[in-house]
């Protein structure tokens, strides 16, 4: 077919118009001798153009025609081409398969006579079942012939699929029926090969997973469980050995690669004890395991169990015996934490570059739909037998019919699932390889899009539809659980089927709510009625309820949300913020369900919820910015009480900002991953709370001085932070450890100055501890000279005289943390100049002083640990806890601070880093101490966040302990791991302390 230079042939143009991407190659193929009889027939070109990939279909047709000629001569080739042109059903089926599957084209080229399987077009051929497939495999006599016959049957399934004769559900059912027939044929081959084994035992094959659910893929592991019993008169032990050999052989027949390739792997890992358990068990052994040892996911898997091969009576007995256990799973003690763990998408093992292309496990993927449906079946199938289908789409339909799922949601989920399964089938069909990844190559995407009816812009249309459906699944996944609960309490559409009160309670219990009746009352109060507010709540709550259920205390989350909504319900911006600002609703859900402290802070001024919707609302504020705001608020107030009240109000809001930021960083959200650097989280909280405390003290001092003396106090006055306050390491529940220093102004009597200073201190402590809606700030001055027996305020000279004459080594150690935070800055610097020689003594500590510090530490460990406290879990005084690390670091500062400027810091982690840099402690040991200190600090913060009051040890209440675990990054049900990790990390730290502090 010569083409004049400079012109395109008319055939070339027609090929382009019919969807060929390589018209030149297509012209050459049409010129091949194999197609000489039909190359000019317009029906052929039209039919090729209707396929998913016309180029692929034409190449496959040429290969088939050439193979037909080799196999049956010219007569065979002519019969193929004549039938192709005269019989439209064959033409559509054959070319449809050739344009969608390179692997099946390869099969036809090897077995050219198999095209005949597509000729028959009788009604009984449209939806074959197990019997028809068994007839198709009837002549099988070895594993190779089984593969050929299997592919021939698969060819007919694929032809009906790509031509639209069957929908996705029917195709998946046919694939499962073909798998059933294949398992039976393979077992028959194994029994024929070992008649002695076959005579000794009864063996049943139970299909699980997608095969059991009658919804198999083109290429998938076929999950099975084997049940065996002794034949009459046979020894049970020998019978089980025989059954195991038969089962193993059957698996190899299906799985092994031969000259005709493989069929699919047979996977028996869903059996009791997985791959560590025996391949075949008796029915009694199965039941004993399930009744005693099985986990929730195993009952979820059994939901799809179906007897498919081997002894039918034994298979049915197995299914009948395990079925009641499946529907009692929701009553098990660990059901709720198991469900919470299973609800977390397991995408960590998917390579980062593949997550967005994962059809099965990725967000909005097939697993989300299947899990949601199965969970609802387990919860409600106990009392409603209509829900007990192993097939996802049938079960979804039944859930909708029963009101367990909203009808509109069910339709959308059905559409999305059908699309995703069709996409999965088209991807696998091309090369018959097991994959769940959407390809990136344009040619692959074009072929898949065209195979799904997208002909104008197949790649663009496919990507758009795929993203739309995954987004739909992600959006519906949580609402599926919760929207019917709202429908049940709102009762807006009379006549619609909705959840009964009992069914709603069952669902809430399954999702982690301990008091479902109270939860339903809250939902009714929030969502009932026809007001705009109730309508917005009905939109928000399905998602919020899911986030609450993801926490350790869903009930508290919902209760707190109701309280906030009651307080702000009439505020126009509140619900609009949650509805329109994507992060605000999830941030609020995390904060309200993480413990008591943050909700308590929020309830005292609910308008602070606006911080959660501001992109920078949770950013940390520096001390200068905080002090400026506090002093401005104090300046606007009338009287000291009002002024300090304003300062405490700022403190409460800023504490909420800090707790909210900490919770969200620790829990993570859809838009913000968990912050991995635990030390950074600790440093942020410590500096934020310390800066806030300093600003509050500065404002309080200004208010007291102004109220009592106007602009000028008779004495210069400074507040020196000590302890954790001075170290920028305050926790949520810490008191403010301070020293007070004053210096009489020129011409002022010492007595008058001291009297004024003491009045300032007394008034500051009183005002900051007054019972109000804002949390108190307790001032602790017990680290002053002479402790509680000494004066609250001293002059600089008095401090100098005391430290020169009476100072003990522990006081020098305490002064390592001294830092001025409020009042006269010059006086504060003078105080530091005074104490620097004590805390950084020239040439370091003497041996006697070191021994004294060690003696004090040992005494503290033996006397101050609370009676009954577990020393391995006490964060402050326990083994490897805060005290151990801090005293070790402080000993190095006392010994070497005079020579190492980096050690002259009030911050523990900074000093530890400086000691490591100076070679005073090996890097590995410094890391061990730092890890323990960070963890102990995080635990203390967690306890305060969860319980609303300070504590130095883990809570004993199960829910509170679980909430601490969630804050620390442990999944539900893993508090034991948390405690084990804490003990392990602090034990390692104690070993370093023994060597570095005690010199052991």
Biggest sheet character: 5 strands, mixed
Class from helix and strand fractions: mainly alpha
Number of helices: 43
- Segments where pLDDT lies below 50 for 5+ residues? 1-7
Gross morphology is elongated
What percent of the residues sit in helical stretches (DSSP H or I)? 55-70%
Distance between the termini: 95 Å
How big is the Rg? 38 Å
**Percent in strands:** 5-15%
Number of strands: 10
Oligomer: single chain
On the 0-100 scale, what is the average pLDDT?
91
Describe this structure in words.
It contains 43 helices and ten strands. With 1000 residues, the protein is mainly α.
Properties at a glance:
single chain; 1000 residues; mainly alpha; 5-stranded mixed sheet; 43 helices; 10 strands; elongated; disordered N terminus
Write the layout of secondary structure elements.
Blueprint: H1 10-17, H2 23-30, H3 42-49, H4 54-86, H5 88-100, H6 102-110, H7 123-126, H8 130-136, H9 143-162, H10 168-193, H11 195-200, E1 201-207, H12 209-212, E2 222-230, H13 236-255, E3 266-267, E4 280-281, H14 283-292, H15 296-302, E5 306-310, H16 312-327, H17 335-343, H18 366-380, H19 392-401, H20 407-431, H21 442-451, H22 458-490, H23 501-510, H24 516-527, H25 532-549, H26 554-568, H27 572-580, H28 582-592, H29 597-603, H30 623-636, H31 640-667, H32 678-709, E6 715-721, H33 723-726, E7 736-744, H34 750-769, E8 779-780, E9 793-795, H35 796-805, H36 809-814, E10 819-823, H37 825-839, H38 847-863, H39 882-896, H40 908-917, H41 923-947, H42 958-967, H43 975-996
């Amino acid at each position: 077919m010569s083409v004049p230079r400079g012109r395109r042939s008319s055939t070339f143009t027609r090929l382009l118009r019919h969807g060929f991407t390589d018209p030149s190659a297509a012209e050459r193929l049409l010129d091949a001798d194999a197609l000489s009889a039909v190359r000019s027939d317009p029906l052929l070109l039209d039919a090729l153009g209707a396929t998913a990939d016309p180029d692929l279909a034409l190449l496959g047709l040429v290969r088939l025609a050439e193979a037909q000629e080799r196999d049956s001569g010219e007569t065979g080739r002519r019969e193929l081409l004549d039938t192709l042109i005269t019989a439209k059903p064959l033409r559509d089926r054959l070319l449809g398969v050739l344009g969608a599957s390179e692997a099946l084209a390869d099969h036809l080229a090897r077995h050219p006579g198999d095209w005949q399987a597509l000729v028959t077009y009788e009604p009984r051929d449209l939806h074959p079942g197990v019997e028809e497939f068994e007839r198709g495999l009837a002549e099988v006599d070895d594993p190779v012939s089984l593969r050929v016959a299997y592919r021939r049957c698969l060819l007919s399934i694929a032809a009906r699929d790509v031509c639209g004769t069957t929908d996705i559900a029917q195709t998946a059912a046919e694939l499962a029926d073909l798998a059933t027939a294949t398992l039976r044929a393979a077992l028959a081959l194994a029994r024929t090969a070992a008649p002695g084994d076959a005579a000794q035992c009864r063996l049943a094959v139970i299909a699980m997973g997608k095969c059991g659910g009658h919804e198999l893929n083109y290429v998938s592991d076929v999950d099975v469980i084997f049940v065996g019993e002794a034949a009459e008169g046979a020894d049970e032990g020998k019978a089980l050995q025989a059954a195991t050999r038969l089962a193993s052989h059957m698996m190899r027949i299906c799985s092994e690669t031969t000259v005709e390739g493989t069929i699919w792997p047979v996977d028996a890992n869903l059996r009791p004890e997985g791959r560590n358990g025996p391949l075949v068990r008796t029915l009694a052994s199965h039941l004993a395991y399930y009744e005693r040892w099985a986990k929730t996911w195993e009952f979820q898997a059994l939901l799809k169990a179906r007897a498919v091969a081997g002894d039918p009576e034994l298979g049915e007995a197995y299914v009948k015996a395990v079925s009641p256990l499946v529907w009692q799973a929701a009553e098990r003690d660990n059901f709720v934490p198991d469900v919470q763990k299973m609800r977390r998408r397991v995408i960590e093992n998917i390579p980062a570059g593949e997550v967005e292309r994962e059809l099965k496990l990725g967000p909005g993927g097939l697993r989300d739909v299947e899990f949601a449906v199965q969970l609802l079946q387990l919860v409600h199938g106990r009392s409603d037998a209509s829900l007990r289908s192993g097939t996802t789409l049938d079960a979804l339909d039944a859930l909708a019919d029963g009101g367990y799922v909203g009808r509109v949601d069910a339709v959308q989920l059905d559409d999305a699932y059908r699309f995703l399964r069709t996409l999965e089938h088209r991807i696998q069909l091309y090369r018959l390889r097991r994959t769940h990844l959407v390809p990136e190559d344009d040619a692959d995407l074009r072929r898949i899009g065209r195979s799904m009816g997208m002909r104008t812009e197949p790649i663009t249309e496919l990507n758009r539809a795929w993203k739309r459906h995954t987004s739909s699944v992600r959006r519906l996944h949580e609402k599926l659980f919760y929207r019917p609960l709202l429908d049940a309490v709102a009762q807006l559409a009379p006549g619609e089927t909705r959840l009964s009160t009992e069914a709603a309670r069952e669902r809430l219990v399954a999702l982690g709510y301990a008091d479902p009746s109270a939860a339903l009352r809250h939902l009714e109060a929030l969502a009932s009625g026809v007001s705009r507010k109730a309508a917005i709540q009905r939109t928000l709550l399905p998602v919020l309820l899911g986030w609450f259920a993801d926490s350790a205390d869903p009930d508290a989350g919902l209760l707190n949300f109701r309280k906030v909504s009651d307080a702000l319900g009439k505020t126009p911006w509140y619900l609009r913020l949650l509805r329109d600002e994507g992060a605000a609703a999830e941030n609020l859900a995390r904060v309200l369900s993480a413990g008591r402290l943050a909700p308590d802070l929020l309830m005292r001024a609910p308008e602070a919820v606006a911080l959660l919707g501001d992109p920078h609302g949770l950013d940390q504020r520096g001390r200068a910015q905080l002090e400026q705001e506090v002093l401005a608020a104090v300046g606007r107030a009338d009287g000291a009480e009002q002024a300090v009240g304003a300062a405490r109000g700022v403190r409460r809001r800023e504490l909420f900002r800090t707790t909210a930021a900490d919770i969200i960083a620790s829990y993570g959200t859809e838009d913000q991953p968990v912050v991995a650097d635990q030390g950074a989280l600790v440093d942020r909280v410590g500096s934020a709370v310390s800066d806030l405390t300093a600003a509050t003290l500065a404002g309080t001092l200004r208010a007291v001085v102004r109220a009592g003396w106007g602009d000028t106090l008779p004495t210069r006055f400074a507040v020196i932070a000590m302890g954790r306050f001075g170290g920028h390491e305050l926790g949520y529940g810490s008191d403010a450890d301070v020293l007070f220093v004053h210096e009489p102004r020129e011409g002022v009597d010492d007595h008058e100055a001291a009297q004024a200073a003491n009045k300032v201190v007394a008034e500051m402590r009183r005002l900051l501890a007054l019972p109000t809606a804002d949390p108190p700030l307790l001032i602790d001055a017990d680290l002053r000279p002479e402790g509680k027996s000494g004066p609250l305020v001293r002059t600089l000279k008095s401090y100098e005289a005391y430290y020169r004459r009476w100072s003990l080594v522990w006081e020098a150690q305490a002064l390592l943390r001294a830092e001025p935070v409020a009042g006269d800055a010059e006086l504060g610097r003078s105080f530091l100049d005074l104490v620097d020689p004590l805390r950084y003594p020239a040439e370091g500590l003497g041996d006697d002083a070191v021994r004294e510090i060690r003696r004090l530490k040992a005494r503290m460990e033996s006397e101050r640990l609370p009676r009954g406290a577990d020393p391995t879990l006490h964060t402050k005084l326990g083994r490897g806890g805060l005290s151990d690390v801090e005293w070790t670091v402080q000993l190095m500062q006392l010994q070497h601070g005079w020579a190492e400027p980096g050690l002259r810091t009030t911050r523990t982690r900074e000093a530890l880093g400086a000691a490591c840099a100076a070679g005073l402690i090996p890097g590995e040991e410094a890391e061990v101490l730092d890890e323990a200190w960070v963890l102990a600090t995080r635990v203390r913060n967690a306890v305060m966040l969860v319980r609303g009051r300070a504590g130095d040890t883990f809570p004993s209440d199960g829910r509170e302990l679980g909430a601490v675990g969630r804050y620390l990054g442990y999944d539900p049900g893993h508090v034991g791991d948390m405690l084990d990790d804490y003990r392990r990390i602090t034990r390692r730290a104690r070993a370093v302390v023994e060597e570095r502090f005690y010199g052991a």
